[in-house]
Amino acid sequence: xxxxRSSCRGATLTVVRPLSLKSIFxxxxxxxxxxNKIILDQDNLFHKLSQSPIAELRDRGxxxxxxxxxxxxxxxxxxxxxxxVFECPDCGYxxxxxxxHYHEGKAAHQEICGILREQNEDDHDLRSGRAxxxxxxxxxxxxxxxxxxxxxxxxxxxxxFPSMDSSRSIRHVSKLLTYPVTVASVLHESCPYKxxxxxxxxxxxxxxxxxxxLYPRDIAKENTAPARTEMINLYVIGARAEATLPPHxxxxxxxxxxxxxxxxxxVGPDALPANKExxxxxxxxxxxxxxxxxxxxxxxxxxxxxxxxxDLFFLFSPGIGxxxxxxxxxxSIQKALETKCAIFLTGFDHADMANDIEAVEQDYSGxxxxxxxxxxxxxxxxxxxxxxxxxRQTIFANWGIWGIRGKHYDxxxxxxDDE
Length: 419
Ligand SMILES: [Zn+2]
Ligand SMILES: [Zn+2]
Hints:
33% helix, globular, binds zinc ion, alpha/beta, Rossmann fold, two-stranded antiparallel sheet, eight-stranded mixed β-sheet, 2 domains
């Protein structure tokens, strides 16, 4: 938990990708019983963190007091830096060490004060005890239901999500659904990314292969090959928060492809709590999960075969470009490239994504083809994650997306090996 803050110039990039999303459900499993008491009314959602009626938010304030930074102390960069214990009356966050530094840094703070205020109210709303109608997700879609995945609004509308009528509801729900719906959005036939724009010709080949499995009816219609009802394997490597999502959240991805069973493999050191054994479980006959905390290149050896028609990879904000992680990632990326299956990656902001892309271009040059050019993700989380160690840093989970695939021809092959 302790932050390493070596630079007095601030802006030391601390990775703020969430490890878990469980707290969004209030920790304990809440049953919708008569015990659901309203703790906070809708006109009473703003509280200074230290005076919040919600223990979890008081704790958040305490964490900032302990590990956070006063931006004025940080910028002045001399001698002793004092912890942020002074709470801004407008956003309720402990932003500065003292009232003096608060007033000195007020102009700079204005940039994020509104963001923090919104976060404050959102987080109180989430724990207010009101009936969270926006979390009542639609069930299986009809076979002829035409879902459009152009963006969140159109997706929610065409998929008939109930009560998605405020930007606050969209922020709450998109923070969870960004993972399954980002995956679905690239696979879906109404994918918002277009050939020749974001999707390269190589990318179209990968997606067309996967869609022969996902849309067997189209094949049957064209009367070519018999429909394949094979399982799609989604390998989520370096899984973190996405592995802690309740299984029914992933069901929202499966519903979009009513013909196809999915097996989601969450692999990586943070895919499981330390005290849990790797295991496989299923939610229903169409959705299976494996949780395994090995490094991906070890897990890879357990898989018999890979097929670009049925298998793909997703790396959510992997941080491949971070100096501390780059070497660790290498054998795993190498294995994923060898499969020739599609690999999609996300980043939490422009710099994060650019950093990863630069590392991939340097370390795997000549070994991969682009399948999707880097672009902003239509299905990013609309709720920001705030770095408690430096409130000036905020991100959107899955802000951007890009894709690569191992090259079809290995240039080191002898000519006689090629067909
Ligand atoms: Zn200060
Ligand atoms: Zn403020």
